[in-house]
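Re: the 148-residue chain
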Amino acid sequence: MPLEGEYEPSPEKWVRDQVEAYERSGGREANTLPGRPEPVVVFTTRGAKSGKVRKNPLMKVEHDGVYAMVASQGGAPKHPTWYFNLKAHPDEVTVQDGERVWDGVAREVHGEEKAQWWERAVAAFPDYAEYQQKTDREIPVVLVEPKA
């Protein structure tokens, strides 16, 4: 079941607009970043501090039904806020890929598993490699697997 509670839309207008169009159309609209061909999915998390429902369109990185959330924030010096939401509430995440919506559990990957998923992420969205070069922080990769 999708997360319940008060929804707090992104402060970024383009994110709000993309999430609204994606959800309204079952992923048939707003399913790429503006001007890009690579697909996105919408991840819903619970705010780490506020407890409010948050939604973010992220690049689609999927393998065998598991999705990766790459905390790149375009190579910014700090992790995106949704990363902290997942750390605080790893069992409160929903994935919408097109019309399909499902509940998942998040876990950050490290070591060899992270290296394997990083390759998949860069293959899906080559800009991730550039983003890692732009920042001193190691960009986290968080997997979302279906709830049992």
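The radius of gyration is 14 Å.
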